[in-house]
């Protein structure tokens, strides 16, 4: 009886011990599971907190204008492959975008930079000063002109930086052996043209050799060569010795061919005759082509200006001019160039303009380029125009 009671007590003790061990084991498993879960949770939370925003979210930077949108990952800025981006482009191009007027907005997931589109330049330009003092007594150097016009690009090119010019103007100077006159022209005209807010280029068309001078043919060549470089829509043809005395006399094109040098000191600031179209004139590309450019067969001095007037009037156009005060100009006094004697055939040719203009002009132009020189102040193109 006693033996049985002791045996039962031992069984009960073993059962109780096993139960406690199993409970501790279960508790240990639960605790380890909770610890493992907490470790995983804290690891995940710590990893998420430690990430930078552009690692959690595909962050994008959008560079937006009215015309250009470029989308690319933020982390790729500076080492970006455009093949992996979405690019939408329309005209105008980047040179019409005003970079200084920018706004940048940064959030946790985007950065936005906007460039404002340049507005058109006002007409008239607000930078004009009116009447100018023009003197030729003190010589000028090309170095001086270069230093005073730092905004010029190679080849005498310029465009305003704060607005889009209303016209693209090629200034064409028929030229030979007139270097001192050219210095004065560049000295006075570059600042004037910049104040007029023109997108312009200066082309000095230099006749090679010592054959008889052909001014009108050189102007045709200037038209053709300028268009090889830029999409000009206006062409101003200027003698190298004529300087405007008022910057309100804008060197641009109008609805009718424009005569700009209307009141020269050489003629006591009066128009010598109503048909006069010499000195400085402006024609749009359409107007120039409508008259088939200028004649190529006027060798020597005189006649080509009247021929051009006849071409204009025969096509139903008229000459426009600024008023006599705004159109004042000074001429650099000089002796007539050698091999530029008056053309004895000029009067006969002028009478036959209507008969010859369809076959003598830009459509029959022949010449050879000898050399092209690029200076910050101008593009000089030396050409062989042939012989009379």
From TrEMBL:
Transmembrane segments: 25-45
Single annotated GO MF: cytoskeletal protein binding
Keyword Amino-acid biosynthesis: no
Record carries keyword Oxidoreductase: no
Pfam families: Glyco_transf_7C, Glyco_transf_7N
EC annotation from Swiss-Prot or TrEMBL: 2.4.1.-
Localization per record: Golgi apparatus membrane
Single GO BP term: carbohydrate metabolic process
Functional description taken from the UniProt entry: Responsible for the synthesis of complex-type N-linked oligosaccharides in many glycoproteins as well as the carbohydrate moieties of glycolipids.
Protein's name according to its UniProt entry: Beta-1,4-galactosyltransferase
Organism: Salmo salar
Native organism taxonomy: Eukaryota, Metazoa, Chordata, Craniata, Vertebrata
Gene: LOC106602598
């Amino acid at each position: 009886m006693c033996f049985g009671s002791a045996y039962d007590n031992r069984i009960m003790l073993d059962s109780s011990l096993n139960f406690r061990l199993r409970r501790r084991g279960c508790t240990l498993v639960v605790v380890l599971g909770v610890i493992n879960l907490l470790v995983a949770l804290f690891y995940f939370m710590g990893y998420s907190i430690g990430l930078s925003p552009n690692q959690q979210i595909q962050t994008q930077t959008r560079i937006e204008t009215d015309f250009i949108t470029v989308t690319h990952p933020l982390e790729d800025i500076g080492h970006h492959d455009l093949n992996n981006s979405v690019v939408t482009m329309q005209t105008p191009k980047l040179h019409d975008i005003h970079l200084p007027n920018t706004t940048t907005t940064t959030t946790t997931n985007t950065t936005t930079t906007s460039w404002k589109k340049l507005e058109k330049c006002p007409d008239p330009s607000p930078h004009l000063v009116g009447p100018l003092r023009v003197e030729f007594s003190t010589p000028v150097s090309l170095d001086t002109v270069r230093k005073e016009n730092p905004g010029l690009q190679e080849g005498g090119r310029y465009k305003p930086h704060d607005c889009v010019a209303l016209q693209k103007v090629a200034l064409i100077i028929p030229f030979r052996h007139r270097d001192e006159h050219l210095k004065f022209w560049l000295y006075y005209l570059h600042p004037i043209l910049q104040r007029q807010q023109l997108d312009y280029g200066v082309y000095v068309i230099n006749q090679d050799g010592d054959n008889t001078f052909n001014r009108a043919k050189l102007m045709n060549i200037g038209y053709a060569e300028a268009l090889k470089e830029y999409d000009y829509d206006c062409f101003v043809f200027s003698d190298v010795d004529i300087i405007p005395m008022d910057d309100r006399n804008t060197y641009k094109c109008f609805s009718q061919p424009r005569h700009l040098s209307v009141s020269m000191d050489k003629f006591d600031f009066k128009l010598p005759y109503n048909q006069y179209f010499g000195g400085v004139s402006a024609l749009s590309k359409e107007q120039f082509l409508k008259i088939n450019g200028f004649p190529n067969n006027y060798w020597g001095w005189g006649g080509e200006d009247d021929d051009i007037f006849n071409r204009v009037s025969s096509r139903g156009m008229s000459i426009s001019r600024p008023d006599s005060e705004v159109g004042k100009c000074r001429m650099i006094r000089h002796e007539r160039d050698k091999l530029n004697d008056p053309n004895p055939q000029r009067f006969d040719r002028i009478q036959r303009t209507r008969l010859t203009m369809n076959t003598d002009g830009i459509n029959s132009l022949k010449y050879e380029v000898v050399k092209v020189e690029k200076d910050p102040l101008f593009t000089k193109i030396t050409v062989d125009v042939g012989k009379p």
